[in-house]
Design a protein that fits this description.
This protein has 436 residues and is of the alpha+beta class. The chain is built from 13 helices and 21 strands. It has a 6-stranded mixed β-sheet with strand order 6-5-4-1-7-8, sandwiched between helices. Helix 5 crosses helix 6, helix 8 packs across helix 9 and helix 11 packs across helix 12. The longest helix is centred in the middle third of the chain and has 24 residues. The two termini are 40 Å apart. The structure holds glycine and manganese (II) ion (MN) (2 copies).
């Protein structure tokens, strides 16, 4: 366990909240799946970001006055560990994860109460876990009442309920070296899974069988879970943006859109590739595919420090709209169609989102009504698409053509790095991989 990145992040938070601040955050709740079985536990992303400690029922307290990080966690329990597995306990957790103090989790309310005295700001992830909000507010009120009764002279308590999410989101927006290495690995594993899917796909197979191939490749490379439910959408299913039923048979002549990414060591990959079920694009499929590919490539080429995300979005949009006009799927001018938003019939989502600990990662895209300027260390998806459903006014060759091409890019000092480029996306490369 390399605890250095986590210690450094806690130190950065402690510096920012200052000597008159205190911050508290909680592990994710365990989720019941059915009767007495649970979903696999997945630590809360903020909690992982600051601790690397991935057990449930844990609390982190950051005390600005002492600049100490204090963990509260489950105690060692021989019987429970026989049934449910290893737990660190406070003593080992302190050592392994580099906390300044560690206690049994039942002690957090009392320690928080003490830490609140003579602080000005109480930072928490308000709204994330309402049950914990209530517990924290109860402690805050109790300290306020004590101070009101002047039990201690010159005692004051936080007047400020401060937003820890705003602080952490700003940090999480710019990935550090530890995160970049993990994101690249997640991207690489995700790309390998898309290659495997291209190699295995044949007409007559079921979407679910292809999902199995993808998960197999993720796990083979140490990524136990996907970072979101995999979309394996043949033919018309690709026109449903969040299709996750993955239950239909793949038909000769159809396209297959796969949007799937591995979560590696908590970091998300998020790749979409679209390819023909039988390994060969029809002329009409190729025409639409090339439009989306050109938009994907032009947008990636425009990603660099100080690029305006709104501009990058517009570069891709103009290519998509021009392509739709060329194919006579839209009439009029590019600007006219953008103005009227007529293109939204075929392109109804944004160009991308941040990617990190969460597949749709935290951090603003806009600031004071203006798009954010890209900076080194930001990681974004670039995912233009066109979705042409069946309709009377659309030539039949285009019916049920859903195409998205999605990569993950890291903004670097000089431009960007497409770290999911390993997944083939030119028509020639895809057809070659599928020929085997
Ligand atoms: N897989 C979800 C997305 O592409 O945003
Ligand atoms: Mn995405
Ligand atoms: Mn995706």
């Amino acid at each position: 366990m390399n605890n250095t990145p986590f210690i450094q992040r806690r130190q950065r938070v402690l510096q920012q909240i200052g000597s008159e601040g205190v911050a508290v955050l909680f592990a994710a709740p365990e989720q019941r799946r059915s009767n007495d079985t649970e979903f696999p536990f997945r630590q809360d992303s903020y909690f992982h970001y600051l601790t690397g400690f991935d057990e449930p029922q844990a609390v982190l307290l950051l005390d600005g006055a002492t600049q100490k990080s204090i963990l509260f966690c489950r105690e060692k329990d021989a019987l429970s560990e026989i049934w449910n597995g290893f737990r660190y306990g406070p003593e080992a957790a302190l050592e392994v994860f580099g906390f300044d103090e560690a206690y049994a989790n039942i002690e957090w309310p009392a320690k928080l109460t003490q830490a609140l005295v003579n602080k000005k700001s109480l930072y928490a992830l308000w709204g994330l876990y309402p049950e914990h909000d209530k517990e924290v507010m109860a402690k805050w009120h109790s300290v306020q009442q004590s101070a009101g009764r002047r039990i201690q002279t010159n005692t004051y308590v936080p007047e400020n309920l401060a937003d820890l999410a705003a602080l952490l989101d700003g940090m999480r927006l710019i990935k550090d070296d530890h995160e970049i290495a993990l994101l690249k690995k997640a991207g690489e594993i995700s790309a390998l899974a898309h290659i495997r899917a291209m190699q295995k796909t044949r007409p007559g197979m079921n979407e679910l069988q292809i999902e199995a191939e993808i998960l197999h490749e993720f796990m083979r490379h140490g990524a136990r879970f996907p970072s979101y439910n995999s979309i394996v959408a043949g033919g018309k299913n690709a026109c449903c943006l969040h299709y996750v039923d993955n239950k239909d048979m793949l038909q000769d002549g159809d396209l297959l859109l796969i949007d799937a990414g591995a979560e590696y060591n908590f970091y998300a990959g998020d790749i979409t590739r679209t390819f023909p079920v039988n390994g060969k694009f029809t002329a009409a499929q190729k025409d639409i595919y090339e439009i989306v590919l050109a938009a994907n490539e032009a947008a990636i080429a425009a990603v660099k420090p100080n690029a305006d995300w709104g501009e990058v979005h517009l570069i891709a949009l103009k290519i998509l709209v021009q392509g739709l006009i060329d194919q006579k799927l839209l009439r009029g001018t590019v600007d006219g169609n953008i103005e009227s938003q007529a293109y939204q019939r075929f392109y109804m989502h944004g160009l991308g989102h941040w990617v990190g600990l969460d597949v749709h990662d935290v951090g603003k895209r806009w600031h004071n009504g203006k798009p954010l300027l890209l900076q080194p260390g930001m990681c974004s998806t670039i995912e233009p698409g066109l979705y042409i459903a069946t309709a009377d006014d659309i030539p039949e060759v285009f019916h049920n053509t859903g195409i998205r091409i999605e990569d993950n890019v890291l903004v670097t000092e000089n431009g960007c790095e497409n770290y999911t480029a390993l997944a083939p996306k030119s028509v020639a490369d895809i057809e070659e991989v599928m020929r085997g």
